[in-house]
From TrEMBL:
Gene3D superfamilies: Rieske [2Fe-2S] iron-sulphur domain (2.102.10.10). This is Rieske 2Fe-2S domain-containing protein. It comes from Paenibacillus silvestris. Keywords: 2Fe-2S, Iron, Iron-sulfur, Metal-binding. The keyword Metal-binding applies. Its cofactor is [2Fe-2S] cluster. Coiled coil: none annotated.
Amino acid sequence: MSLGEWIEACPADEVEMEDVIRFDHHDRTFAIYRTEKGDYYASDGFCTHGKFHLSGGLVMGNLIECPKHNGRFDIPTGVAKRVPACVDLQTYPVKVEAGKVFIQI
C-alpha cells in the first residue's frame, strides 16, 4: 500500500500521555498513541496475533501491550517485541497541526 492522504484522526488533547485510542476510518481501524515523552504515533488497530483491538492495551514507554494475550509491540516501529505477537504492526506517519492529530494512510 502506498502512503497518500492525511486524515484527521482526533484532537491532540484527546490522547493522554502514555495512552492509546481507537480511530476508525471507513472500513479500517487504527490505534493512535501518545508516549510518555508526548510523541504521537499510529498503527493498525488490531494485534497481529489475536486480532484484538490495541486501544484497550497498556502503553509503557515506547511499548503497547495487547490486552488479550499480553503480546507487545514497539510503538514507533511496530516491531513485535513479546510473544505471542510475532508479526509486526503496520505503522503510519503522524503529524500534529492546529491541535489536531493527522495520520497518513
